[in-house]
Amino acid sequence: MVLIEGWYPVAWKVFDNRLFYIDAYDGRVVECFVAQFADFNKGPEVNTEPTQPINFTYISRIHDFDNPENYKEADALEVEFDPTGDYTATIFINLDNNGWQNVGSINLAGNSLTLPITLPSQLRNSGVSRQTFHLSQYGEFKKIQIMVQQQGKDQDCILQRATIFGRIKPWRRE
Questions:
Q1: I need a labelling partner for 24 at 20 to 30 A (CA). Which of 109, 125, 132, 153 fits?
Q2: pLDDT computed for residue 45 by the predictor
Q3: Dist. CA 168–CA 65, nearest whole Å
Q4: How far, rounded to the nearest angstrom, does the alpha carbon of residue 107 sit from its chain's CA centroid?
């Protein structure tokens, strides 16, 4: 699930495989997903370019390791992103629906060159941004959920995968 804040649609329309909405404030037709921005500023001086950033928020499904009754013990969480620039994404977990806990952050630059650069410079494969977060200190759980947030205007975030490593504990009577 991706949450987008700052849009104020009153109606939606798909035309030529593009998504549009009618702005609830002034009736303008706005094309969706043409940039990393959402809606327009409101007020007497209306901009012609969108200015509200679209904040990337990914919330995973609830993972129970196909065994909802047994407790689990998490070892690590590994996330991998396509390199998109010198931006930061923050990773959270939610154990047994007890609230989100920040487990750390990752820089999305990967091995890519960031501008400006000093010439001569070596061109190389952009690689990936990958990081492993150790989760053993969070204790046991029955279900886990992952959230990734990256906030900032004109910044991309391309999450490739999130992998949870852990083990299912033997069943016990509660």
A1: 153
A2: 47
A3: 8
A4: 13
pTM of the model: 0.65
Q: Which amino acid does the sequence have at 53?
A: P
C-alpha gyration radius of the chain: 21
Range of the domain at 133: 56-168
Task: Give the amino acid at 73.
Answer: E
Check whether residue 69 and residue 126 sit in a common domain.
yes
Token readout for 75 is 């070892």
**43 pLDDT band (50/70/90 cuts)?**
very low
Give the pair of three-digit tokens for residue 147: 């959230």
Is 65 buried (19+), middle (13-18) or exposed (0-12) by CB count in 10 A? Answer: middle
| Amino acid symbol at 63 | H
Q: Which SS3 state, helix, strand or coil, does residue 66 take?
A: coil
User: Is the same domain home to 88 and 117?
Assistant: yes
